[in-house]
Amino acid sequence: MERPVKDGILYVQHCKFGKRSWRKMRAQLFAASPSGVARMEKFDVRDDGTALEKTSLRRCARRVIRLSDCISVGPAGTESCPRATAAFYLTTTEKSYLLASEQRDEWITQLCQLAFQGAKETMQSTAVTQPGPAVPMEENSLYSSRQDLTEFPVLVVQTDAATRCGLHGHYLLSALPQSLTLKDPQSRQPLLTWPYPFLRKFGQDQTVFSFEAGRRSDSGEGTFTFSTPRASELCGAVSAAIACQQQGKEPPDP
Asked: For the IRS-type PTB domain, which residue ranges apply (predicted)?
């Protein structure tokens, strides 16, 4: 019988008709094994935090998130968490989740280990067992595609400007050669664009990237703030693009 790596209470944020609310869940993390894939299983719980009966669980309540589908995990800045909890996000290829827990850092650590380190170990073991090419080759740990270096998963931190523009939840923020562009995380369609000449100032602090847009931008003037574990990379990409515009050059390939 599988034993969970971590078991505890989580809160999941839901948004219905523009109103956000938190639902209490019980979550269990399982490592990959012969019995199953690495995953998070979520169950409905009663108000007192106890799980529903096993018969009820079999009928309806269990929901599974495959950690092989995980894209990013990290702390989220929100002021509306349930009491004594802190928020974090879990982004997969299918959906983005905003979660809260009293043990946020522990959940983030365990999720990262199962979702990313486990995948890395699987790739390494596969490379050993499968026949390789005639010439020995090694993976370049510094390799990244251009998209990896210019497109960043972000979570909106509510500000007056973000509220006015109807922004909430997860997006992709692209530091393009001419502008910052906010995209839908599923369709990747542009939603808002801020040309660099219309940014009054920008900066980052640990896992937060923020900028102040001028009134000539599509969004109107105001401060926009996003939570992302790659805040320093995002800020660096914006700085490089602006420097190239000032010099009248095209940004170099990353």
From this structure: 148-252
